[in-house]
Amino acid sequence: MSEETLQFDILQLMEMLPHRYPFLLVDRITECVPGKYCKGYKNLTFNELFFQGHFPNNPIMPGVLQLEAMAQLGAGILMPLPEYANKLVLYAGVDSARFKRVVRPGDRLDMETELIKVKGPIVKAHAKAFVDGKLACEADLMFSMVDKK
User: Fold this and answer.
1) Residues annotated catalytic, as ranges
2) CA distances, 81 to each of 34, 100, 142 (Å)
3) Whose CA, among 39, 94, 99, 109, lies 20 to 30 Å from 132?
4) Is 98 helix (H, G, I), strand (E, B) or coil?
């Protein structure tokens, strides 16, 4: 039996995620098998709000925003599933975060997040981000699924 592979553009992502500019950090999900993994990317331009202050004359994407981008991508693993239709995905923790290279304006941050475990409302995933095929960031992420409002 083959698995259904989904893709989501920015309009579909805005239906799925509550985040908006300047905090929506995924442009497209290119490959998603619900309940298993997602792949997607964020194109970074100098116009990103965080580059103005991090750092003037040496713009670098903050590591914590790389983690947030991978977490937003990870929401795509569960949100298409009917049992999570009325849920909100909240960050519950980060373990083993490692930053391997600087991410700058003009880079495309390619990301992949794989579901590791679901236990009740707690979800664990492993995520990686790449620039030009080179590992930029990797971490184990934990989410809490809560009811919307």
Assistant:
1) 54
2) 7, 33, 18
3) 94
4) strand
Instruction: Give the helix ranges, DSSP H, for 4-125.
Output: 10-16, 63-78
**Tens-place pLDDT, residues 47-64:** 999 999 999 999 999 999
Q: Which amino acid is at 50?
A: F
Which parts of the chain are beta strand (E)?
6-8, 28-33, 37-43, 87-99, 108-119, 122-131, 134-147
State which residues of the chain have pLDDT below 70.
Answer: 1-2
Residue 51, both tokens? 């580059």
CA distance 8 to 16: 9
User: Per the confidence metrics, is the pTM higher than 0.90?
Assistant: yes
Report helix, strand or coil for 100.
coil
Q: Is the bond preceding 121 in cis, omega lying within 30 degrees of 0?
A: no
